[in-house]
Amino acid sequence: MLPAWLPSLATLLGIGLLALEIGVIVAALGIIPGNRRPSTGMAWLILVIAVPLFGLLAFLLFGSNRVERTRREKQQRVNAIIHERTSAIAELGEHRPEPAYVASVAVLNRRLGALPAVPGNSAQLFPDYVGSIAAMAELVDTAERFVHVQFYISAWDEVTAPFFEALVRAADRGVSVRFLFDHLGSRGIPVYKEMLTRLEGTGIEWHRMMPLDPLRGRVRRPDLRNHRKILVVDGVVGFAGSQNLIEPSYNKPALRKAGRQWVELVVRVEGPVVAELNAVFLTDWYSETGDVLEDTMDSTPGAMALPGTGALVAQVVPSGPGFATENNLRMFTTLIYGAQRRLSITSPYFIPDESLLYAITTAAQRGVDVELFVNEQADQFMVHHAQRSYYQALLEAGVRIWLYPAPYVLHAKHFSVDDDVAVIGSSNMDLRSFALNYEVSLMLTGPGIVEGMRAVEDTYRSLSRELTGAEWTDRSRGSRYVDNVMRLTSALQ
C-alpha cells in the first residue's frame, strides 16, 4: 500500500513541472523574438511551446550566433585599421564600376566589410577540380616571401599531396607558410589524424579555426564554423571559391564506390584585390592566434591602392558571425534587384530568407530570365528537403530550376547578373552562410568575367535536367510533409 503522502508529492511535482514549463514559455515569448528574423523567432517559439524543457536546452546551445567578445573585438579592430589605411581609395573615381547599381553595391560592401572595390585586376576560372589543386601547387612553388592557406575542410591525401608537398618545399627554403583549417569541419575526415601527424614534421605553421575551448574562454554556439577557402602567395596571386582542400569524394570509400564527386568552381586572381584576400586571412590568423603579422599587415592596405594591369574591378566581401550586418545577404539581394535581363544562380544549399526569396521571385516576375542550379540528389538530408520547400514559389514566379545529375554534387557557389557582374566565393545562399559561417565572396565586374561564368553555367545546363511545374505538383504527400518540416528546422538559428 502506498504511503498517504506519496500521491500528494506526485501532485506537487506535477504542478511544479507545469509551472516551470509555463514560466519557460512566458520567458521565451519576451526573449526569443529579440533582434531575430520573425521566421526564426517563430520557429524557436514553436519548438519551446511544443517541448518547453527540450526547446529551452536547444535554444541555450544553438539560439545565438554571437561569437565570444574577444573575437568580435579583434574583428572590429582590424576593420578600423583597414578603414583608416584605405581611406584614400574609398572612391574609385574614373574606375567606378558601371552600371550605377553595381557602384552602389561597392559602396555598401565597403561600409559593411571595410574593403574597397579596386581596379586593375585579372581573373581566371577553374572548373576542373584536380586542375585547380595542381595550379595552386604550381603557384606555391613560386613563393618567395609567404604563403597563406585557409580552407574549411583540409586533408592530406593522394589528390592534395602535391599541394602539401609544395608547401613543405616552400617552408624548407625559408618561405613563411601559414595554414588555417576549421577544427570541426576537418576532423570528421578519415585522414584527419594522419594530416596532423604529417604537419607536425614540417616547417608549416598551422592552427585550427573556431576550436571549442571553454577553459580559454572559447565558448559559443558549437556549430559556428569558418567556411572560407583562400590561398594567397606573396600578396601577388590568390585563389578563392567553393572548393575544399580534399580529394573530390572526401576520402570516403562509400562515396567513391557510388561515383560521387564534388563539382567546384575556383577563381585565380591577380592585382590589388589579392591584398584584400590577404587581409581576410590576416584577420582570421589574428583571431585564432592573437598574432598581428606585421610583415604582411603593414603592406596589405597599401597594396590595395597599387595600380594593376588587369581590366577588372574587384572587391572582397567578408561575412560571418563577427559582422552583425549579414554582408553577403545584403550584397546578394541588392545585386539581384539590379538585374534587368538575366540572372543565373548556382548554390548547392539554397535556403533563402524572406528578403532573398522576394528579390529572386520579383526579378522573375518583372521579366528577368532567372535560373537556379541545384542538385538532383543532395549530400545533406535536412538541407535538401528544406531547399525543396522553396521550389513551388520559385516555379510559380517563373524561375527555371535545373537539377544537376546524381551521383555528382554541384558544390560551386556563384551567380552572374546581366553582362555586368559575377560573384564567386564560399557562401551558399542559405541561412547558415548568412548568419552562422564565416564566408568570403568576390564581386567582379569588367570585360570577360561574366562571359567566363556563362561558359561554366552553359556546361551545367547541358548536363542538368529542368524541373517542371507538372513534375513538382505530382510529388507525393509524404515528400511535401518532409520538405515542410525541414523548412521549419532550417530557421532554428
What structural category characterises the helix and strand content?
alpha/beta
> Do you know the CATH topology of the largest domain?
Endonuclease, Chain A
Would you state the CATH class of the largest domain? Alpha Beta
Distance between the termini: 50 Å
CATH architecture assignment of the largest domain: 2-Layer Sandwich
Beta-strand percentage range: 15-25%
Give me the CATH superfamily of the largest domain.
Endonuclease Chain A
Residues in helix, %: 40-55%
Mean pLDDT: 86
Q: Can you summarize this structure?
A:
This protein folds into 3 domains: 9-62, no CATH class; 69-100 and 116-312, Endonuclease Chain A (Endonuclease, Chain A, 2-Layer Sandwich), CATH 3.30.870; 327-490, Endonuclease Chain A (Endonuclease, Chain A), CATH 3.30.870.10.
